[in-house]
Amino acid sequence: MTDNLNDFFSDNAQWVDDTSAGSSFDAALPPQPPKSRRDMRKRREQQRRRRYVTIIAAAVVVILVVVGGFFGVRMVKHLRQMNANGSQIQIEDYTGSGDKDTTFTVETGQGAAEIARNLVKADIVKSESAFTSAVAAAGATLYPGSYALKTHMKAADVVKILSDQSKAGGFAEVKAGERVSDVIANAAKMSGKDVSEFQAVIDGGGAGILPDEAGGKFEGWLEPGSYSVQDKSAKDILKEMVTARVSKLDTLGVPDGSERERIMNIASIAESEACNPDDYGKVARVILNRIDQDMPLGMDSTVAYGFNTTGSKLTDEQLEDGSNPYNTRVNKGLPPTPISNPGDSAIQAAMNPPEGKWLYFVTTNLKTGETKFVETEDEFWKIRDEYKSNNANAN
């Protein structure tokens, strides 16, 4: 009955609309009721939405209060850890020089946080934060290797040791531009083996280790990086270095076969001749231009390699000795093999050297490494005189 009456009044009721302006009574009137059931439903829907919004807003406020309280408690705990002057957080750290002797190994690729966790597990430092804070404060670089440490050491003392590469054991470092002779001498020292064990593998032609394009020669085929040499044979150590090199060349997109060996050869000369990495490409272009014009390369670095010495120690007799197959002052073309283990930048420069007609270059400033590249012989003598003038002034 009630619903019928509501429907009846909704359909038939008339409302009086007093539109006279300026009446103070108008402002006191309640909102006009809806004129139809559709308006009533619309109003009820609006009221329902307002209730939902109110409920959601209240829930958000409650959540914010709870979260704020949680972080507030954490902040209070954090502030309680600060010392009297309020500027530093108290970090748990050992204060002595250490107790029991122990050996700790840093693996290649490990960061300060991971090293810190392992140090805590070994009971060498008291907390991870003590170690990472000490690393940051010292701006230290941590090197892979095995180190002689003690338990219960002060974090700063541990950082000093782990950032001193001379104290690292069990890892051999291959550096860009090094010769094979340098690499195996260091690998022998770090592994405790005799260098003759490595030399025997080198002299054996690298069967099962080197790719065919290397022609049985290891020079240029040892990838720069750090290698664990503990409890490994000389052959296994060299094989790991060669495998890493082949993988890197694949990653860099260096062509296979004889072209790969050729690029390595050019890159090794650029690595040895250029003072600045930005000049690798120009040196490579000079090499290619001279080959195209059937000119000797004239690189002292190759001559020095053939005599197992350095460019500054070469004699006039050695520079004129054509029996040295690496003497590119006398013998045309590339040397028989690379003359060092070039790094990524030199290899990429050898693959994509800049365009240019340069045939000569001279490092005119030995302090800055500034090198000038020219096209003609007349220009060469000018920059050669500039080199002599700068060198005389430096002395």
Automatic annotation (TrEMBL):
- Transmembrane annotation, as ranges: 52-73
Q: Which residues form a coiled coil?
A: none
Q: Where is this region: Disordered?
A: 20-46
Kindly give the InterPro entries that the UniProt entry links to this protein. Answer: MLTG-like
The reaction(s) annotated as catalysed by this protein in its Swiss-Prot or TrEMBL entry are: a peptidoglycan chain = a peptidoglycan chain with N-acetyl-1,6-anhydromuramyl-[peptide] at the reducing end + a peptidoglycan chain with N-acetylglucosamine at the non-reducing end
Record-linked HAMAP family:
MltG
* The protein's name in its UniProt record: Endolytic murein transglycosylase
Q: Which organism is it from?
A: Bifidobacterium adolescentis (strain ATCC 15703 / DSM 20083 / NCTC 11814 / E194a)
